Amino acid sequence: MSVNKEVKRVTTSTLLEMKRNGEKIAMLTAYDFSMAAVVEAAGIDVILVGDSASNVMAGHETTLPITLDQMIYHASSVVRAAKKALVVVDLPFGSYQGNSKEALNSSIRIMKESGAHAVKMEGGTEIVESITRILAAGIPVMGHLGLTPQSIYKFGTYTVRAKEEAEANKLKTDALALQEAGCFGVVLEKIPAKLAQEVTESLAIPTIGIGAGGKCDGQVLVIHDMLGLNKGFKPRFLRQYLNLFEEMSGAVKNYIADVKSKDFPGEKEQY
Ligand code: KIV
Questions:
Q1: Which terminus of the chain is more exposed, N or C, with fewer CB under 10 A?
Q2: What superfamily would CATH give domain 3-240?
Q3: Is the CB of residue 89 below 6 angstroms from any atom belonging to ligand 1?
Q4: 41-95 pLDDT, tens per residue?
Q5: Closest residue (by CA) to atom 8 of ligand 1?
Q6: Rounded distance, CA 205 to CA 242, Å?
Q7: 68-79 and 100-114 are packed helices; what angle lies between their axes, rounded to 10 degrees?
Q8: pTM, 2 dp
Q9: Which atom of ligand 1 is nearest to the CA of 29?
Q10: Is 186 exposed, middle or buried (0-12, 13-18, 19+ CB in 10 A)?
């Protein structure tokens, strides 16, 4: 974390404090310097360099193809704009599932090469050994339960998870295991609001929901989705704050028309 005396950085302890005080945590994704500068200036608490970059930045159908090198590139760009926000980076698919040493090495690369402040990984009890090892190296870890997009081919759909009792019970066990292992927070993705509330109330660490209702300690959205850049993606949980795709394509159309009509550049736009 940079030693900037003017700006007090959000830390994992700040987030714990926010939960204790009942102050909601606002988290958004960003993958590049310019977008990170926008969310930082607006006062976001946490920036997630999500592996959703695989979808929204690279155009892949799933999060599986993005590589560790690519995540480090995105993260280092975001870190340069984040003066106050805590920057959390997803460990991408294939960079931690092999064994705990691989998980540790990938986390160290993210921290060392991007300057980020924490890593996030999908899974419950099965990744506790890796979490313990990463934490032992001094790297904060955030968990991610419920819909875990890196396992899409195991589950086959992106629909709501843990609606059945057995899966809900497993999720509760996993959440406690993540807390016990030392995670500073856990993302709950696309699970029933009542279950998310139960988990939130049972944990001392903050829960950050996406499609998990209003009782989580914080909320996260993919920036492209909430700004309306991801055309046609309108799941029930998403609140779209802008229609940026239309706004931007309108501006581009105007530019094209101005070039074609020789209106641009004008007298005052040249030397
Ligand atoms: O990759 C991502 O953007 C995420 C959020 C959806 C939580 O993991």
A1: C
A2: Phosphoenolpyruvate-binding domains (3.20.20.60)
A3: no
A4: 999 999 999 999 999 999 999 999 999 999 999 999 999 999 999 999 999 999 9
A5: 50
A6: 32
A7: 40
A8: 0.97
A9: 3
A10: buried
